[in-house]
Amino acid sequence: MRIAIPHGTLAASAARLNSRFFAAAIFLCVLLLVGVAASALFLRQAMEANARQLLAADLRLQAALPIAPEVRAGLLPDAVLRFARQHLDGAERLFSPGLEFSAMARVEGTARSLLVEVKAVAADYPLRGRVQLEGDITLSAALADGVVVEKSLLNRLGLRVGDVLQLGERSFAITAALAYEPDRITHLFSLGPRLLIALDRVASTGLIQAGSRVTQVVSIRLGEGEEAAALARSIQAQAKEAGIQTRTPEQSQPSVRRFIRRFVLFLALTALLTLLVGGMAMTGAMAAFLRESRRTIAILKLLGANTGQMVLLVMWSTLRMVWAASLAAGVLGVMLPGLLPRLLEGLVPAEAHYQPSVGLALAGSGLGIVFSLLCAAGPLWWSRSITPAQLFRSSAWGDEREPLGGRKGVWLGLLLSAVTLCAALAIGVWSGEAHFGLLFVGGVVGLLLLAWAMVRLSLWGMRCWRPRRHAWQLAMHALLRRGEGYETVMISLGIGLGLVAAVLFLEDNLNQQLLNRMPQRMPSYFFIDIQPDQLAQFQSLAAPFVASQPDAMRIFPTVRGRLLQEDQPVAADEERPQAWRKSREYVLTYTDNIPVGNRLVAGQWWADPTVREASVEVEMAKGLGLGIGDLLSFSIQGVTITARITSLRAVRWSDLGLNFFVIFSPAVLQDVPLSYLASVVTSPDQEEALLAAISGRLHNVSAIATRVVLERVQGLLQQVAQSVRLLGGGAVVAGLLVLGVSVAASRRRRAHEMTLYRLLGASRWEVARIAAVEFMLLGLLSAAMALLIGQAVTALAVEGLLNDVWGFNAGLAAAAFVGGTAVIALTGWVGSYREMGRPVMALLRGKIS
Amino acid sequence: MIHLDQVSFSLIHSGQKLSILKNISLSVAKGEVVGLLGPSGSGKSTLLALLAGVEQATAGVVQVNGVRLNGLSSDQLAHFRRQHLGVVFQEFHLVPTLTAWENVALPLDLAGLPGSRQRAMAMLEQVGLAHRANHRPTELSGGEQQRVAIARAFVGCPPLILADEPTGNLDQNTSQHIIDLLFSCVAAWGSTLFLVTHDPQLARRADRCLHLVDGCLEGSQPCG
Fold first, then answer.
1. Can you give the C-alpha Rg of chain A in angstroms?
2. Chain A interface, mutation test: which of B48, B54, B161, most A Cβ atoms within 10 Å?
3. Is the peptide bond before A356 cis (omega within 30 degrees of 0)?
4. pLDDT of A721-740, one tens digit each?
5. Is residue B23 part of a domain?
6. Which of A168, A704, B2, B186 would bridge A207 by S-S if both were Cys, CB 3.0 to 4.6 A apart?
């Protein structure tokens, strides 16, 4: 490309001053955006490419229906299998039945036991994909002689392949360790390690009892050319009626897909926030670059350069500054999912092979270049005001006002924010999460307004402050001068640091809430599937271990039921949470009195237990549009029961106690076969003994350790937090770049000032102190803003979204404040260190102007 | 060459109207050398800026080499400067990031003319700086920088040269050399020279001198 003006005309000043900031900002923005996009693409590709494997079949039918007593001996998924044979029978179709449930695995002769996710499979499992075992053994051989378990089970119970494991009433040899299970992603939120067992051996364990939580599964392999989606559609109505869910590879694991989609969307929106801050850095760098070049621009205009030539020159100079950084970031960005596998661990199948996309790298680089040119457009528009007439007045160059200060900066900030927010909204709408996008947009607008108001307030406060110390006076004046453009610096640093602080505070709040308070408030174990005839034995076995506190052991009779509306099960569109709420199975209970931790918000609790009444959790009632006086129907093992809603309850779910969405009066569940659910609080040192006592005698009773659940939740949260922290770190770096730009832009004047102080008798140490105070003030203000933003976001998230009590950790807040201040002060001070040591003679000789 | 008719220039500063030039009328013939004298703040630089088309008169007509500058767009004025004008400043105003020959070639590059390097080198040869062609302005003395500026002003053979105190930043010896160079170039190219100066030595070399006091032209008289 040839333009009329030598490239070096502006490029050299760019190289000298701001190109490194500009390139760094664009590198950061493109890297994060492409990295997030590549991760999203990888997740989607992995889901699509492995969809059949993820289902281990072409079509899957599943239902948590009760297993008929007469079939329990054979333990086949009778209802679902019958349905499949009735509606889907075909010469080329293969049906593979299976059962999935939780159970306690024990080590014989010891107190060691562990909740496992049992998958009982037929000999032809899997119909698609392949199970990989460690060692030289096939799945069918392994299941013929015993059970196959995940390695984590071996580690946690201290077992090895070949050892014996007790499952229910039976002992099984562990014949192999599971290396890869095609439908592994179904266990993203599982509570225990996987255990594979042959379907025909389940009956002998005695684990399946009336009311046991068992999912019946029938995997189907279709004939050549048959389409799973069309087939699923053809039986949709009948399946709904029978309470059976159909899953095609495309629909497999909607909750996992939803989690991944939201995870990616969240990352994309956080990356956009970084882009916003990075955009400020780039615009600032561009403005400073053009200001540095304004004398040259005036000369060129005087010599006859027209608008087109000037635009071309600036755009070309911009292109020269960013192309390499954009390209490098694009390439590195598409490699990120491969370089940071931990971020995607558990979200994609282990077998999924990441293939970096050249197209995405180029698109990302192109986007970076276009974004840079957009960032250059604002300052370029401003550069129209540079006229050659200024060459005739040397005094005109004394005006060192920040080109993006004042109203220009505000307008440009608004423009950048508007573009970013529109992009956020578009991404939200495109992902089918418009409300999430709107929430983000609202949040960012709120953040920007808050940050702006705080900056104005703190600057106003500083103007009223009259420090006595000379160094503080000089530093404060430097900070207040419009030329420094510190308003943008404070806003961008405040937002960037605020984001990181919010992640830290949120993690801390959840940790405090979930783990530290657990021993005092939360049950140690939940015991499920206690049969009526086992209740007395369970109570006597548990009694020695129950903590001496009120409600340390709570027992509720429970039964599972599906919500009905107009006597029909509600549509099972799992992509919609509302519909999901309607279609899901509920654990139902009855009780005479309102349970501890529940609060009536409407209606009256039943006075007469013989009247058929229901109490519903208030949020569920809102979601379903139910109110006092409405009738509520459930299908329980094929029988419909109905009761009138007479009260609504507020439930504090975060206590992790035994809580129910729907509670009936005793009369409603009078004749229903029930099992019992218990929660027990014990001291941490008694936990193992309690578990051993119960699982050693009541083999069918499963124990869920609250600590394990919380660790799982915490693990997932940490995975998300890790990603957000990474992106938040990007936003901080972008904020520091804005600071770097500002320092570089004021370098000349700073050098002049510092040298002048030294000429007038200040020592180098004193000059360094003035600069240190200036950047420390800047750091203090920005960190204070970040702290407030972080705490506000955390309080909103904890109180508003998690419905919990927000806690303030003074130590962490102080550490974040001091750390943030130190990073900012040090960056600014080091950035202007060179100016402190300029020889005084340079000023006298006019080399500094 | 230059024709000004009842030209005024004013601007608004802090809400108050400041009249910089008041009803200036003058004519300069082709090939004439005119000196503009006056105390600081009298409006000399503004008059030069009007002639260069970088400021627009608030009243009256400004016509240079047959081109009426009033009402032209910024791009049309840029085109006018490219075709008709060379400017020499007291502060040289060279692009610091370009070498001497690149600075000289700049007007030719902007006009899209071929052979800019050869013509720039030839021009530097004429001002005696061929050996410094690859040096940047910061590596040149004040006198050398002004010689590069003169070479840049003349390289496009413009019919009008505007000079704003071209010796203001130079010592007496160097000033003399620069004046000699400027006038020899004017003579060689047959250009019209309109120069602003405080330097009586320089003013003496002009064909006639104009005196500007408080924005008003006080008449035209032979210099010296």
1. 33
2. B54
3. no
4. 666 667 667 777 777 777 77
5. no
6. A168
**Contact call for B75 and A307, based on CB within 8 A:** yes
Please judge whether A392 and B107 are an interchain contact, meaning their C-beta atoms are less than 8 angstroms apart. Answer: no
Q: Domain containing B78 — which CATH number? A: 3.40.50.300
Of the candidates A5, A302, A389, the beta carbon closest to that of B109 is on A5
What 3 state SS string does A739-776 have? Answer: HHHHHHHCHHHHHHHHHHHHHCCCCHHHHHHHHHHHHH
Rounded Cα–Cα distance for residues A821 and A840 (Å): 31
**Considering the domain boundaries, does residue B11 fall inside one?**
no
Please report, for chain A, the start and end positions of each structural domain, with discontinuous segments joined by +.
Answer: 1-50+254-454, 59-247, 466-522+707-849, 523-706
Q: What does A531-582 look like in DSSP terms, one character per residue?
A: -GGGHHHHHHHHGGGS-SSTTSEEEEEEEEEEEEETTEEPP--TTSHHHHHH
Reduced to 3 states (helix: H, G, I; strand: E, B; else coil), residue B25 is strand
The CA distance from A816 to A791, in Å, is 11
Cα separation, A280 vs A696, in Å, equals 64
A302 touches chain B (CB under 8 A): yes
Q: To the nearest whole number, what is the mean pLDDT of chain A?
A: 76
pLDDT per position as a tens digit, B134-143:
898 888 888 8
Pairs of CB atoms within 8 A across A/B:
90
pLDDT digits (tens, 9 = 90+) for A285-321: 777 777 777 778 888 888 888 878 878 877 887 788 7
Closest CA of chain B from A825, distance in Å: 33
pLDDT of residue A481: 66
- Check pLDDT > 80 for residue B200: no
Task: Give how far Cα A306 sits from Cα of A10, A90, A374, Å.
Answer: 16, 77, 21
Quote the domain boundaries for residue B48.
31-53+73-221
Distances from the Cα of B80 to the Cαs of A134, B51, B59, B112, in angstroms? 83, 11, 20, 14
Measure A848 CA to nearest chain B CA, in Å.
13
For residue B106, list chain A residues with Cβ-Cβ distance below 8 A. 5-6, 9, 299-300, 303
Distances in Å between the Cα of A283 and the Cα atoms of A86, A290, A294, A378, A416 are: 67, 10, 16, 7, 9
**ipTM of this predicted complex?**
0.80
pLDDT at A46: 67
pLDDT at A615: 93
Instruction: Please check whether residue A826 touches B, CB under 8 A.
Output: no
3-state secondary structure A181-219: CCCHHHHCCCCCCEEEEEHHHCHHHCCCCCCCCEEEEEE
Higher pLDDT among residues A607 and A844, named by residue: A607
Q: Indicate yes or no: CB of B110 within 8 angstroms of CB of A393.
A: no
CB–CB of A190/A716 below 8 Å? Answer: no
Query: Residue B97: inside a domain, yes or no?
Result: yes
User: Which whole-number Å values give the CA distances from A373 to A86, A284, B66, in the listed order?
Assistant: 64, 13, 40
pLDDT in tens, A47-67: 666 655 666 778 888 877 666
Top pLDDT among A231 and A846 is at A231
Structural domains counted in chain B: 1
Retrieve residue A332's tokens: 């590195």
Neighboring chain B residues of A305 at a CB cutoff of 8 Å: 78, 110
A 239-298 residues with CB < 8 A to B: 295-296, 298
Q: Is the pLDDT of residue A578 over 50?
A: no
In a domain, residue B65? The reply is: no
Kindly determine whether residue B98 and residue A9, on different chains, have CB atoms separated by under 8 Å.
Answer: yes
Q: Which two tokens stand for residue B188?
A: 């060689």
- The alpha carbon of residue B158 is apart from the nearest alpha carbon of chain A, in Å, by 11
Q: Under an 8 A CB cutoff, do A4 and B112 touch? A: yes
Q: Please check whether residue B97 touches A, CB under 8 A.
A: yes
Contact status, residue A409 vs residue A487, Cβ threshold 8 Å: yes
CB distance A312 to A380 below 8 Å: no
More confident residue, B11 or A399: B11
Does residue A845 have a pLDDT over 90? no
